[in-house]
Amino acid sequence: MRNLQLSKTIIISECRYLEGASYLTVDVDTGTIWLIDKNGLFTVSDQKIEPAASASDTGLLHPDATVIGLEHIPDTEVVCVAASTGEVLTFNTVTQEFDCSGTFDGGLSCMSWSPDLELVVFATGTDKLVIMNKEFTPILETSMHPDTFGEAMPVTVGWGKKETQFHGKLGKDTATKQREALSPCFAWDDRSVRISWKGDGQYFVCTCVSPQTGARQLRVWSRDGCLFSTNEDINGIEQSLTWRPLGNLIATSQRKPHRHDIVFFEPNGLKHGEFTLPFERLEMKVRELMWNSDSSILAVSLENLTLEELKCHNEQHQKSPSSVKPAPIADAVKTKSIIQLWTMGNYHWYLKQELRFDNEGSSPCYIAQLLWDTIKPSTLHILTKNGKYWCVDLRHTVFRSWSSSANSSAIVAVCDGGQLLLTPYKHTIVPPPMAAVTLKLEASVLQVAFGPKECPDDFIVYQSNGNVLLYSYKKGSLAEGNEKDTQGFRRIVQDPVLSATGSMLSVVEIEGSSPLILYPWLLRHLTWWKETMLLAVIWDPTTQSDYLIAVELTVNEKELIFTTKSHFKCEKPIIALTCNPNTGSVAMEMDDGSVWRYKEPAGPVRWQVEGAGDLVLPQCCPQVELGVFDKEEVVVGLSKNSKLYFSGREVASNCTSFIFHNDFFVFTTHSHTCRFVSLQSNLKDISFMSSESEQAFDENVRRVERGSRIVTVVPSDTKLVLQMPRGNLETVTPRALLLSSVRGALDELRYKFAFTTMRKHRINMNIIVDHNPQSFFEHIDDFIHQLQDANNINLFLTELRDEDVTLTMYRGIAQSGYRQSRDGASEPVKGVNPGKVDKVCNAMIQRMTELHENRFLLSIITAHVRKTIPELEVALKTIKQVRDHPVDGVTADEALRYMLYLVDVNDLFNVALGTYDFDLVVMVAEKSQKDPKEYLPLLNSLRKMEANYRFFTIDCRLGRHQKALHHIIQCGSEKFPECLNFIQKHNLYSEGLSELHTGSDSYKAVARSFGDYLTSSKSFRDAALMYMKADNLTEAKDSFERSLDWQNVFMVMSRLKCSQASVMETARRLADKLKAKNKSAEAARILLDYAGDHEEAIVVLLEAWQWAEAMRLIHLCQRTDLIDSHFTPCLHEAKTKLIETLNALDEQLEQQTSRLVIVRENKDKWKERCLEGVYGAADEKDADLFSETSSVTGQSARSYKSTSSSRTAKSRKKLDRKKFSIKEGSRYEDLGLMQALAEAITSIDKYQDDIANLVLQFVLFGEDEPVKQLKDLYNQLHSRAKELINVIWPPSSKMAENTITPPQGFGPLATVNSIIEASATREPLLKGLDEVTDLEWPPAPILKENQLLKTII
Fold first, then answer.
1. Residue-wise over 922-947: b if at least 16 C-beta within 10 A, else e?
2. 889: left (phi over 0), alpha (psi -120 to 50) or beta
3. How far is it, in rounded angstroms, from Cα 68 to Cα 124?
4. How does DSSP classify residue 1269?
5. Residue 707: which H helix or E strand, with range?
6. Helix (H, G, I), strand (E, B), or coil: what is residue 298?
7. What is the percentage of the chain residues whose pLDDT exceeds 70?
8. Residue 844's closest CA among 898, 908, 790, 772?
9. Neighbouring C-beta atoms of residue 328, cutoff 10 Å
10. DSSP 557
């Protein structure tokens, strides 16, 4: 679907140096063009031609010599020249001197260098092929006409005779038909030798005239000079020859009796395809064939047959009749030379461009040589014999209607010589090489320009003869009518109407000079800007510059009249011209990347970018278009190396094609994806889009077939047309365009269109609600009326779920502010929308019931079923109501049968059974295909039961235990044993107590059973309460005692009137239990109040270090004798224990801090060794160092991390506990030491209150020495711990210094050795640190303020 368009044209003419020039070559390093004629070498650079040297003055060339080859060798910086008299000269471009590299006595007819410029093949005048290297050292010399076929000679395997083989459409007579004898080559054949190399330089093909038959023959030779194959004998082979660089096709021309073809051969000599040239059989001759470097374009150079050549041919035909009949002499009248550019797609050859070089007055214009640039595949160098050099840059483009109007039919035009293939993709999809409409024209099509938004389907055709054709469609006629084609099929689209014709050759004048257009194809970038205005670009050879011309277009009775309104000279050649269909802006790109804006009447001005000044694209972009992102106009450019630019900023590096849609910017990538960028996006927010940014459920990225390119996109529609590399088309409807269309339809309340689109393309129906919930609930009547059919509503309801799909599945959708208006509350979980299904179902039920209940009966049932907790019972009752009171529409049987599709039959049967309505149960059972033997016995047995017990049985069967409990209680005392068993079985004690009468025997029985259950669950306090409700005080007392609720124990014992001995025994037993639970104060009170043991109560307090309370009881009970016997010894014993504990803490801090310093020193040493690159070379003597670095290395010198994903949770916890081991040499020793120190420092605060209370008692007893000893020891330990915190946990800057940065050794300045060394060091280091990086240092402890320093003691 892509066409070829001239991007830039440069002509150097009117120069005496170029007269007679015959060959040219290109310096691939500098871009300099080298030309040669009989006078010497010339260079073309920066549009200037200068003489370089004269070969004739050196005496190295024979006076009668003609140049037969020219090649620039960049490695040696020489230009190689071959002459027909046998001289091979080299011109050094540095020293500017000629040198003779050799001479062939028999002369030369051809010179061809290999693609890698390592070998050169010479065809001598003695029919020899000579292969030399680039130093011109002979490698092989062989005959050009060997007798053998070559290495690829076909082998007969004996599978039958030729007479018995299948011959296709030629028929069986072909087997017996004698082969036609080879005819000599034509009279106009130059009989020279031509050589062409394969792209990889391994083979070359040679065409020459056979001395035996006089016909041309092709032979394929290997790089070593071995004959590989010879072509099959075919008449009419001509002189042209070229080998496709990327592939195995050899192209030449063949003249047949009825047509003129370009034919292709395989390397084995067999024919492989052809296409026909659009000329009469004896009108033109093919001079040369040449592929461009990427094999996408085949250039065919043709000349007309002269009168002399035709006369000679007729004479030759009379002497020896050939298959080509003689030509009428009157056919050749006008001299012309043509270059045709052909491309192939879907196995069809298209003529994309025709560059015609007609007579210039009395001077014929013939092509001397054409040459494709090896670096720029789309650049063609042309040298003509009348002294002109042409440089033509081509670009691939799609001629398509560019208006974004909804009236546009998305027409795409394909040029194929004199045929224009049109397809409106809005109405039909026709795969190439076919088309919906084929226009046959008199001349080849050069350009097609579609109209602006006022007439989007109209187009202008510019032909190779300079004629301009205006085609148009009447409004609405493109897809209307019942006209049939020649085969009787109705045509989907109609042919356009030719409205007017005209010519532009004589109207383009600049400053009153003669017409500027020398040849029609020199006018390029034809653009239909406004309804009556055209823009175009032409090259002026006189001023060596481009001109932008604005031409007014008027129609006068089928005649196009062109008037040049303005013209502007441009500083640089224009390579792209584009218009914005919405804003009318015009942008031009120059060959230096600068972008200009065209304004009337001022002309071109620099394109300004806000905040950046003049816009200059980083690279020249053959494809440039204008678009608007968030009200900002953007210049979008695509360079030849796939870089995509938005106003000079690179946004993608792998783009292959792009196009603007109404809502999106669409582009394809080399990673086989199609991406969509919303036009509502702010340009500053569009970041670099890499191929790795694709995410699941991202509708802005779609996978496409490898090599897909965009052909067109239908405006205001969802169709995107892609073309595959082989040429076939694929029409896709991307989710981005679909969702954009659906979103627009929902905004416009076109629910029917949105629903149909979503159902067709399987889009989740939740978006109808989630796009704008408020609007949906406000217009729910419109939604129901537009969908009409209950099946559509059912489909919508069945897909509902409590999820916001605009945040999950379709999270790329622009929300347009709806997200902020949802009840003003933020959602707790992203994507979760609790209660949505119930809310929608309730609203739908309400509205459908009000509108027409029976009409939407199935939808109402669906809404009940689709609720979060399905209302199956309500739905069944609705069906029963319809059965009892029939109405028009859906019957009860149909509704029930439909409900069985939504709900499992067993579930529905159970729900029906739960209604206790046996008629409804039977109705469901009959429709569910259940066996009557399954449910009739059950129903019969239930009917025989008492009502409440029947309900109880049904509820038990359905697992509704609370309802079952209610019904079994209603059965009375007869069923109470069964009721109690039921309560115990299903743990329904609380429910049973609430149903029973308080104080009744049943109530007490349930409470007693509940107490037993709680006792077995070790909930003793609750069990005691239940026993109290059951009047079981003994069990209640035991339960209170086991729960240590001593107040209630003695209360119950009082009610039981227990003896004093029993009370004292219970008191001592409770005191022991409370002491074990560290509740010494409560134990002392029990001993004091209920056991009467004052001394034991005081001892309990002293053991718990409750000094003040113990002293109070001593004086209260007047037992001052206990001060000396118990109080003072306990006081000194506590002092001793505290001193020992504080000393142990001080020693622990000292030891562990010292060890931590050693570990960190080893860490620094290891870090230095790693940075020096010694890690990988660690040997056995360094083993101690590595083992002592613990968590720094994360591994030993010879072992790496190994993990097991199959560890259980228990083993993982155990492993985590072992991580912080303080064992010397362990993996995480430093972290373990830090954690141990943090725990030790934190424990210091725990002893502050104990020391304060102890010091107070010593002061009261007047002992100052213990006071001073305790205070000094604690203050010293507290201060030391405070200092160690800053040492153990340094500030963040110090922690950053300990972070190990792996050695780099990479980057643009790295050498091979540094990269190898860094890799050897980096890999084990990273493997050792992979676990350590996941661990964090234990947090630093917070030490409380020392309150002892503030006391006055």
1. ebbbebbeeeeeebeeeeeebeeeee
2. left
3. 11
4. H
5. none
6. strand
7. 82
8. 790
9. 11
10. S
Residue range 57-83, pLDDT digits in tens: 666 777 778 888 999 998 888 999 999
H or E element at residue 716: none
Least confident of 231-240, 287-296, 777-786, 1033-1042: 1033-1042
Burial code of 516-543, b = ≥16 C-beta within 10 A, e = fewer?
bbbbbbbbbbbbbbbeeebbbbbbbbee
Q: Counting runs of H as helices and runs of E as strands, what totals does the chain give?
A: 36, 57
Contacts of 779 (CB under 8 A, 6+ apart): 749
* Alpha carbon distance 1199, 1181 (integer Å): 16
- pLDDT > 50? residue 1332: no
Helix (H, G, I), strand (E, B) or coil at 929: coil
Side chain identity at 396, as an amino acid letter? H
- Residues 1223 and 1206: their CA atoms lie apart, in Å, by 27
**DSSP per residue over 320-370, as a string?**
S--SSPPPPGGG--S-EEEEEEEEEETTEEEEEEEEEEE-BTTB---EEEE
**Contacts of 1146 by beta carbon, 8 Å cutoff, 6+ apart:** 1276, 1277, 1280
Question: What are the φ/ψ torsions at residue 995 (nearest 5 degrees)?
Answer: -85, -30
The residue assigned the tokens 């200068």 is: 50
Cβ contact 216:207 at 8 Å: yes
Beta carbons within 8 Å of 391's beta carbon, 6+ residues apart: 8, 9, 10, 33, 379, 380, 381, 382
pLDDT in tens, 170-223: 666 666 666 667 788 887 888 899 999 999 999 999 999 988 888 889 999 999
User: What pLDDT band is residue 120 in, cutting at 50, 70 and 90?
Assistant: very high
In angstroms, rounded to a whole number, what is the distance separating the alpha carbons of residues 585 and 122?
A: 57
Amino acid at 700: N
Report the SS3 class of residue 937: helix
Q: What is the pTM assigned to this prediction?
A: 0.72
Report CA torsion sign: 1087, 1092, 1096, 1098.
positive
Comparing 1106 with 896, the larger pLDDT belongs to 896
Q: If you search the block for the tokens 């054709």, which residue do you land on?
A: 469
How confident is the model over 879-906, as pLDDT tens digits?
888 888 877 778 888 888 888 888 888 8
Q: What letter does residue 693 receive in the DSSP assignment?
A: G
Per cent of the chain over pLDDT 90 is: 24
Cα angle 236-242-244, degrees, rounded to a multiple of 5? 125
